[in-house]
Amino acid sequence: MKTHLICLAALLFSSPIFAQNFGFQLDGTGGGATICDNDDYDIGSGFTVEAWIFATEWRAEEWQGSILTKDGQNPDAGFAFRAGQGGILSMVMSVNEAWFEVQSDPIMNENQWYHVAARVDNGTLTLFINGQAVNSGTFSGTPTSNDRPLSIGFSPGFPGRIWNGTIDEVRVWNIARSDTEINDNQTVVLTGSEPGLVTYFPMNTGSGNTLSNSVSSSCNATINGGGWSDGWSIPAIDLGVVSVAAPDVLSIYKRPVRVSVEIQNYGSEAVSSIPVDLSINGIPTLSETYNGNLMPGEVTLFTFERPLDLRANNINLVSASTAHADDANGLNDAANYRYRRPDDDRFLSLLRERQHNFGSAGQTQFQSLNMPRNMEDFEQILLHFSVECPSTGCDPWDQPASFFVVTEEGEEIEIARFITPFGIECGNWTVDVTDFKTIMAGHVTLKSFVQVWGPSGWLVNAELEFLEGNSPIYQDVHPLWQEFNWVYGDPGISYDLPEQTVQTAAHSESAHMRLTLSGHGQGNTDNAAEFANKTHAIFVGGDWVDDHNPWKTDCGQNSCNNQNGTWTNSRAGWCPGQEVIPYLYDLSADWSAGQSLDIDYELQDYTNLLNTDYNDGSHTEPHFRIASFVVEQSDQHYRSLQNLRADSLVIFVEGDPGLPQGDFLEIIFTNTGSEIMSNPVATYYIDGEETFQETVSASINPGETYIHRFSQNTGILGDEDQNIFGQVTAAGDENSSDDLTADVELVLGVSTRDALAAGIDIFPNPAPGRIQLRGLNKLLGGSLTIFDAQGRLLQSISINNTQMDVELDGSGLRMLLFQGTDGQSYSGRIVLE
Fold this sequence. Notes:
mainly beta, disordered N terminus
C-alpha cells in the first residue's frame, strides 16, 4: 500500500473547475440518496467508480462509511465503496457470491478533501487516492450482481453504514479507466456524454431533494435525509510531509544517520524553497530547505544534509514538518515515526498488545515500517508472535488470522498465518519469513488481520528476528495464488485454481514453491473443509510432481493446550492456537534457471451435497485459504539497486605514538548494490560538524570494498574525546540509512612509506583469507609483520622469496609492515572479508 499520495497533475485544467460548488452532506446517523437499479451498475470485466470525499469524522470501521453502494445479502451480491477507521479506503465486491475486499492504509485525514476511485479490470481491483494507486488485489471468478438500487452515502442492506461528512462528484463507468484517465480528470468538468460514463452526479444544484444525474435524468437520486454543503476544493498552496522514510529501524541504533522524508505538494500551484523542520523527541533539531520546484501533486524524497547520532536514545520520535508561510492547510503538514531500541539487536518489535476486535479497534491493524533497504546480510528472518486476552476476556472461537506486508509498490503479500485458540492466550509461535525478505525491504506496511466477531477479540504481539549470514543471499518472489475464500465443492462454482506461469531468472541457483493452505467450513458433506482429510496434487509443466496432504493429526499435542472447545480434533492444515506451517516443495528436479515454469495445484475432487441454503445457515460453506508463491534464490541481485555502504574509518598516526608527527584518515566502504557506482563523495565530520569533503575518482563495482585515504590530515591525532563520523554518498544512491559510519579504528606508529608505491603488490584486496605478495625483491632476507587495526601483533613471517602466498585468519582491517635488511620499511593494508 504505497504511502505516496497524491498525484494532482490533473490540475492542467483542460476544462474549468466547477463554477457552482456544492456537495451532499451526511452526519453518520441517518440519511442518504437512492438512485435506481441499472444493469450498467453491475460490475463486469471493466468498471470504475469515483467521488470526492470529505470526512468530518471517520467511522470506527472502514465498512461503516458508505460512499457508493449496491450491496446485499442472501446471496452476497453487488459492491460497496467506503472509507473509515482512521482514513482507510475500501472496496468490497461479491465474486461468486462471496465478498472480496481491497483496502488502503489509514492514510487520509479528517476534514480534508480527497478524490477516491476504485477500478475493476479483468480480475484486478485497484484503489486510487487523488490519482495515485494505493493498493490492488486479484480475484478469480465472476462478479455477482443484484437488483438493488445504487445508493450514495448509505447502504440500504446494512443499516448504520452511513457517511459522516460530504460527498461530491460521484461518477460510475462501465469501463476500466486507465491510471492516466483517473488522474487527469479528477478536477475536470464532464459533459455526461463521455464514452463509458453511465452515471454522473456533479451535485451543483445546492438545493432541493434531488441529485441530478448528468447522464440520465430518468435515474436521478432522491435524497432521503442529509443536506447540502460546500463541495470539494484544493488550496493553492498546500504542502506537507507524507512520511519519515529513513533511517531504517536497525541502522538508527547502529550508526549515525541522515533523516529522509517524503514531502508532497497537495495544492494547485508549483512551489519552491520549501522549509522542512525536524524534531527528535519533541526537541527542534534541524531546519533545512528543499530548493527544488515541487509541482502540484508531486512527491519528492528530501534528505537532511546534517547527520545525527541518535544511538544513545532508547526512544527516538522523529517528527518532520513543512513550514511554508502561505500554506492554507495545516492538517497534513507533519508526519512522524517512532523508533524503539530493541532489547536485543537481533529483534525488532512490530506489534505490542495491539487489539483486534469486532468493535472500535477493528479486525485489521496497520503498522508503517522503515525496514532495511538492503537485506542481503540476513541469512534468516523469523516472525515470532502471540496473542493475549484483553481485560474483557479472550474471544471464545478459533478464527483465522494473518500478517501481510504491503510493499512500496502497493502489492499485498501474506507472509504468515495462524489460528486463534479457543478462549485462552497463547504463543510464542514462529514462522520463517526469509522467503519474503526482498519485498519486506524499504518503507513498507505491516497489515495484521484477525477474523473476530466479538467486542473483546485479541491483543496481538509480533516481532522479527534477524540472523546474519556470511555471504549475500537474494530472493525473488512470484505470487501464484492468494485466495482467502476459495469455495470448495459447490457444483455451481468451479474450484479449479488457474495454472500459473513463472519466468525464472538465468542467474538463479535454486527455486521452491511455498504454499500456506488451511481448510474452513463445517457441517457439510465430509464435514468439509475444516474436518475433511483431502489430498491435493502439484503439477509442473503439466506433469504430476507431488501430492500434498495438509491433514493435521497432532492438534492434541499442541503447546497451546487446555483450550476450550474441540481443539484436539484433527483438521485440514491447522490446529487451534497454532501457526499454519507452510508447505515447501523443492523445484530443483523440475526446473532450470532461465526457464518458464507452468505450475498448477489441483484440489481433490469433492462435491458438497448440502449446498442448498446450507441447512438454513446452520453450517458454513466449505472453502480454503490459499497463499502460494515461487521463490527463487541467488547470490546476485534480482532488482536494480544503487547503494554504497560506509563500513568503517581508520585513523593512522605517524611516528612515535608518544610524540606523533601527524595522522591520516581512511574510509572503507562497499558497493552492496547491483550497479557500478562512480565518483562517490567522501566526507568526515568531527563532533557533528562537517570537516572535510572530497570526490573519490573511482568506479566501484558491485560487491567491491574500496579504501579511500583523505588528502588532508584530521588533526585530531587519535584524541578519543572527539567523535568522528565518515560518510560516503553517490549520485543515485537509494539507501541513505547506511551512508555513515562511526566505527573508528586507531592504528599507531605507522610507517610513512607506502608498499604499493614501492612496487610491492598485495592482492586480492579485499581478501577472503589468502593474500598474494609480489615484487619482494628488495626485501629478501627481511620480514613481514601483520597487525590488526588496534596494533596487536598477529603474525611475523620471514621474506625468503620474491613472491609469497600468506594465509590470514579472521576479518576486518590488517596492517602489513615490510622491513628490509637495509633498514627501510613499507606499510600496506588489506581488508579481510
